[in-house]
Amino acid sequence: MTESAVVSNQQTENKQAVQSEYPACRFSIAPMLDWTDRHCRYFHRLLSEHAQLYTEMVTTGAIIHGKADYLAYNEEEHPLVLQLGGSNPADLATCAKLAAERGYDEINLNVGCPSDRVQNGRFGACLMGEAELVAQCVAAMREVVDIPVSVKTRIGIDEQDSYPFLTDFVGIVSEKGGCRDFTIHARKAWLSGLSPKENREIPPLDYPRVYQLKKDFPHLTMGINGGIKTLEEMEVHLAHMDGVMVGREAYQNPYLLAEIDQRLFGSDAPMKKRRAVVEAMFPYIERELSQGAYLNHISRHMLGLFQNMPGARQWRRHISENAHKPGSGIEVLEQALAKIPAHLDV
C-alpha cells in the first residue's frame, strides 16, 4: 500500500470515528434551491469534513420523468442527504430506492418550503396539514431503503400554529410513519401572503417551542434550523437539541464552516486556510471545465470566502466580472486571489 493510500485510509477511519460519536445531524447545511448544488457542496466539504450536506430539494417528478441526472453528486460530498419534494408515497418510494442505490446517506422529505410552486404540487409546508399522508410517505420510503428517512418541517402553517398542532404532527409522523429524525425550522410558514424570502424572515423565531418539542419527544433525534449565524449560537442550541442546521449564513459566509470540525466535533485537525481552500478547488474546477462546466457556475459559491477581510470586495468583483467570460479558467481565481494582501495569513 502506498503512503498516500495509508494516509487516506487513516483519514477515513478518523472521520468515521468522529462521526460515530455524534448524531448525523449535529451540524448540517440546509438544502437551498439554486444554491446547494454539487459544486457548492464540494466547496463546503473542503471547509468541513464532518458537516452533513444536503442537496437542493429535488421533486419526484424530476427524478422519475426528467432527462437530466438529478441524483448526480461527487463522492467527496459524503455524508450527503437527498431532499425530496413530493406527496405520492409510491413515487417517493421509487426515488428513495434509486437514491439509496446511488449511495446517498439519508433521504429527507421536504415539509417546510412555502412557495406557491411547491404548494401547487401538493408538497412542502402545506403537508403539515396532512400528517397522515406524511406518515404514509415516510413509511413507504422506509419500506424500501435501509438508510434513514427524515423530515424537515416548520413549527406551524397559517393559523395552525399551536403547540398541540405541532406535537400532533410529529407524533403521527413518528408513530405511524416510523420517522425518527426531524429538523425543525423554528418559524411558522404563511402559505399565502408572503413570498418564500419573506417566510424566511417575517414569521418570528420560536426556539423555546422547538426545545420543548425535543423534551416531549426525547426518543427522537431533532435538529433546529432558522436564523442561526454564529458558532456561539450553535453551541447554545446544542445544549437543548441533537443538531443545528445553518442555511444562508453558511452560504454567504462559508468560512464559518472552517471551525465546525474543531468546535462541534472535537477534531484536532488544524483549521483550513482560505487560500489553501481556493487552491484545493483548482483540480476540481479544471476537471469540471474539461467536462463542459462553466467557471461562474462553480466560482459563484466561493464569492463570500473572504467576507470581512481586506481585499474581499476586489476578490468578489474580479470573479463576478470575469468568471462568466467564454474560456475562463482557474487563472481568474488566481488573479482574484492576488487581490488579497499577501501578508495576511489567511
Number of strands: 9
Low-confidence stretches: 3-8
> In which order are the strands of the major sheet placed?
1-2-4-5-6-7-8-9
Q: How is the biggest beta sheet arranged?
A: 8 strands, parallel, barrel
SSE string: HEHEEHEHEHHEHEHHEHEHHHHHH
Q: Could you say which structural class the secondary elements and strand pairing correspond to?
A: alpha/beta
Separate helix tally: 16
How far is the N terminus from the C terminus? 34 Å
| Principal-axis shape | globular
Helix content: 40-55%
What portion of the residues fall into strands of 2 or more residues? 5-15%
Mean pLDDT: 92
Rg on CA atoms, Å = 20 Å
Q: Can you put this structure into words, describing what you see?
A:
Strand 1 (27-29), helix 2 and strand 2 (52-54) form a beta-alpha-beta unit. Helix 15 packs antiparallel against helix 16 (330-337). Strands 1-2-4-5-6-7-8-9 form an eight-stranded parallel barrel, surrounded by five helices. It is of the alpha/beta class. The chain has helices at residues 3-20, 38-47, 60-65, 89-102, 116-120, 131-144, 163-177, 196-199, 207-216, 231-238, 248-252, 260-265, 274-290, 295-299, 312-322, 330-337; strands at 27-29, 52-54, 58-59, 80-85, 106-111, 149-153, 181-185, 221-225, 243-246.
